Amino acid sequence: MTMHYRAHPWHGIDPGMESPSVITAFIEIVPSDTVKYEIDKESGYLKIDRPQKYSNMIPTLYGFIPRTYCAESVAAYAALKSGKKVARGDGDPLDICVLSERTVTHGDILLQAVPIGGFRLLDGGEADDKIIAVMKGDEFYRQWRDVSDCPPSYIDRLKHYFLTYKHLPSEQNVCEITDVYGRDEAHEVIRCSMLDYKNHFGDNCAIKPGKSATPMVAVK
Predict the structure, then answer these.
(1) pLDDT one-digit tens code per residue, 144-194
(2) Lowest-confidence region among 18-22, 56-60, 137-141, 209-213
(3) What is the DSSP secondary-structure string of the chain?
């Protein structure tokens, strides 16, 4: 039987020669999803993390930037820019929200995105930045070159989702958005996350001992 191999979405896909100006994004969930999917770090396949508990729906395409990692550099930059104590990065790839005029019906796809900004989310004291981008070539959203071009209500919708989707009104919210930043700062966050990836996983993207993820996934 012939064995084919699928690149691991986190470790086996290049973020792009033009990064951080144009990057490859792996999309995990889309606005119509009622279940929260996320990458299984070991196999590279999408898994069900949990059903969406409440009425919140993700407002954009959502996923991560391959070969990024939120660790020391991302945390140090978050602390510098926010003035807050940031214990560490959240230990995941860098998250990205991608705006598109067109409906995308499912995740587990790659697309080219142009970062225009982001917001600094601290989740229990850990840096969990969300990059905001537009799909490359999108007929409408390509006119937005910086987060300052977006209507405030659009950014508020994104902020509301990430501050509330895990919590009941009666629960204490451990998430905090310290600030919204523009394109240049988004580029720097991406660079920091790429440096963290390099420091933890190496230049050749091989997985260090003790890491469970594998660069390639066997597909029969």
Answers:
(1) 999 999 999 999 999 988 888 766 666 677 789 999 999 999 999 999 999
(2) 209-213
(3) ---EEEE-TTTSS---TTTTTSEEEEEEE-TT-SEEEEE-TTT-SEEEEEE--SS---SSEEEE-TT---SHHHHHHHHHHH-S---EE-SSPPEEEEE-SS-----SEEEEEEEEEEEEEEETTEE--EEEEEETT-TTGGG--SGGGS-HHHHHHHHHHHHHTT--TTSPP-EEEEEEEEHHHHHHHHHHHHHHHHHHH-TT-PPPTT----SEEEE-
| Residue indicated by tokens 């919590």 | 167
Asked if pLDDT for residue 206 goes beyond 50, the answer is: no
pLDDT single digits (tens) 104-127: 999 999 999 999 999 999 998 999
- Tell me the C-alpha to C-alpha distance, in Å, between residue 66 and each of 50, 77, 84: 22, 20, 27
